[in-house]
Amino acid sequence: MGGFLSGVFIIPGLQEEERVAVQKRGHQVLRALHGLCIQAEQAPVIAVLCSGGGLRAHIACLGVLSELRRHGLLDVVTYLAGVSGSTWAMSSFYAKDGNLEDIEAELKRRFDQREWDWHGSLQEAVRSAKTLKNYSLTDFWAYLVVSKQTRELQGSHLSGMKTLVDEGTMPYPIFAAIDNDLHSAWQKEKNQSKPNIGGRGRVGGQKAQGEMPGSASDLPSGEPRRSKGS
User: Fold this and answer.
1) Where are the beta strands (DSSP E) in the chain?
2) What pLDDT score does 79 carry?
3) Does residue 219 have a pLDDT over 60?
4) Most buried residue among 147, 203, 213, 220 by CB atoms closer than 10 A?
């Protein structure tokens, strides 16, 4: 998703790409409902919203998705939204084409086997302490603990999930994240231009609308980032 300028945009209604993807997803939702012996003439729009909270949110989101799949309910979900830590789980969910068994097995392998690059993580923690203006325990935790859990997902990008999302095979994703280091610059620019801030903040294989600088579409998905809630 690189090469796009960050900004906040106001777009009433759904974009055409999102409208088409949601319409195709509706066919999948109806089939899933019929499989659950639930009759419906029109697919309802069901969204699953996952909160932030770093490592806790990551594990909780994966647990919710796993249980939804086990009960046959994941296929009736139209939108899957997350912020901060839950987007780490979402990134692996889409990068693995929704294969939750593989995701769980991979997480177990990472924690069972001692292949963590402790030296590299420590170097990054020290570097960030010297360069970040608002360095906190959250940064230390991210580099020394969370990086072990998410490091193999940082190469994935939102554009990689475009095909499955556009075809309606998987829920339409909404990623949300705020980079506190860029927030002051964004606030300054906002005060100078006085725009009417608003927008949708949706992501689906293209530039997000309604996002702030440093949000999920500008960087690889699954990358640990700091926010007040994580």
Assistant:
1) 47-50, 79-83, 172-176
2) 97
3) no
4) 203
The residue count of the chain comes to 230
8 A C-beta contact, residue 85 and residue 57: yes
Chain position carrying tokens 């960030």: 128
Q: Is 225 left (phi over 0), alpha (psi -120 to 50) or beta?
A: beta
Contact 210/5 with Cβ under 8 angstroms?
A: no
What pLDDT digit, counting tens, does each position of 58-102 carry? 889 999 999 999 999 999 999 999 998 898 889 889 988 999 999
Say if pTM beats, i.e. exceeds, 0.70.
Answer: no
DSSP string, 142-158: IIIIIHHHHGGGTT--G
Q: Output the pLDDT for position 221.
A: 41
Domain boundaries, the chain: 16-113+158-183+191-218
Given its phi and psi angles, is residue 42 left (phi above 0), alpha (psi -120 to 50 degrees) or beta? beta
Q: Tell me which residue has tokens 């693995």.
A: 96
